[in-house]
Amino acid sequence: MGSSDGQLVQRSLSGDGPAFDELVSRYRTRAYRLALSKVRDRDAALDIAQDAFVKAYVSLRALREPDKFVAWLGGITANLCKMQARSLRELPVPEDVLEAGLSRTTQSSDGELNAMVARQIIDALPNGTRSAAILFFIEQMKQSEIAEFLGIAISAVKSRIRDARRRLEKEMIDMVKQTAKQDEPGDEFNEAIKRKLELARWYREFSDLIDSRVPIVPALARLMEGDYSPQVRAATGRMFEAIQSGSTVHEALQACPELAAPGAASLIYIGETHGELEVKLRSCAECLEAQAVVKDVELSYWCRTLGTLLTSGVGILQAMGNAADVAQTSGLKEATRDMIESINEHKSLRHALAGHEDTIPPLVQAAMLAGEWSGMLDEALLWAGNELAAGVCSRLSAPEFTVGHKPFDEMRDAFAKTLSDFLADESAAVRAGAEDALARLKPSDS
After folding, report:
1. Separation in Å, CA 50 to CA 25, 134, 186, 290, 423
2. Domain spanning 90-185: which CATH class is it, in words?
3. Cβ pair 384, 370 in contact under 8 A
4. Residues of the chain with pLDDT > 70: what percent?
């Protein structure tokens, strides 16, 4: 008899890698199908399911009831789906279109057409009904398991399944089941998760070595002998040779796709330029480990990059250009570019921030406006970045990390006084951000 989920969780916490692999193999299909039922795109669903397992792994110590791993994973997956689809709005499918689809499916003998119509019909189900239908009819989970996995009452599950039955004929269920089986994740899914976690470990070890004042070339030599896959060790060897031949770290990294990580080249370029390579390497590790909180992680690095460049004497427009390179999501990248155009045209930070409340949260907006007003925009950005980072670490049960810069404490009172002036600001978002920022500053004042 195999190990229970609780036993596998405990073994994973003890450093047993194969134990977590077993959890991934056991539940990868459920996580994928739950994601697919919500985002309706295979590639996006695979990414979300992988990120859910990465998030689960790095925050495994936060799971208080190890035997409820699958329900916890379901909640993580659902939350990631909400983040992915927050800006999307579903259009209702008219009932006559649904009926026409069923009719075409039962009459057609073309397998490709059937598969397409099967997907269209199950996509036409409402969100909750679609998730329950896929888990019940395709995954063949019990209703009690679905209730636990989705975090809803069993009566709601029964109601959704009844609704799905009314809409889907038996042959349609069989067809969707067959189609879904062709798409479900296999062993490559496990390998993708292993790769993300291995790269995170590589970047973190590289960072620790540089932080310990080990020169770059000897640090890479140690990594070449480390407990990594042959592909990672070989790529490390190529970096070693390239740097010995005169390449910079970010140039050598660009020639090693096996070591590619989100934003790594841009972050490391900035790290080399500003003498904080170990910080940016650690940033790469944290990006890989914190996929589920990528928005706050990205905003943290955006703030820190912008603040660090301003502290170094770089102009606001050039600093914003570098911050746009650090941004990975299209939303933050486009918002940064819009802000550059606005500052260039209107010479106003407030005008530049207007309309970007969904991308630049109230805390950051208030900090930036108060920082500009008090003449400490660079410090305000670094402080906001560290606050966002601390929040990420708290959610991941990880040690907090900070960026070294001149002490903020000596300017804290002046910054807080300026922030208080924004409590009556015309913008509700800025008022809320100022209140949040003051509350965060208060403990350090006592």
Report:
1. 12, 19, 12, 12, 42
2. mainly alpha
3. no
4. 74
d(CA 30, CA 53): 12
User: Where along the chain do its domains lie?
Assistant: 1-89, 90-185, 187-282, 290-446
The answer to whether 292 touches 271, Cβ cutoff 8 Å, is no
Q: Could you tell me where the DSSP H helices lie in 134-186? A: 143-150, 154-167, 170-183
Could you tell me if 97 and 124 are in contact, meaning their C-beta atoms sit under 8 angstroms apart? yes
Tokens of residue 147, six digits: 């209730």
Q: What is the pTM of this model?
A: 0.45
Q: Which fold has domain 1-89?
A: Rna Polymerase Sigma Factor; Chain: A (1.10.1740)
Distance of CA 358 to the CA centre of its chain: 16
Taking Cα atoms as reference points, which of 116, 95, 94, 92 lies closest to residue 104?
Answer: 116
Question: pLDDT by residue (tens digit) across 408-438?
Answer: 566 777 788 888 888 888 887 788 888 888 8
CA angle 106, 107, 112 (to 5 degrees): 80
Ranges assigned E (strand) in 35-194? none
Q: What is the CA radius of gyration of the chain?
A: 25
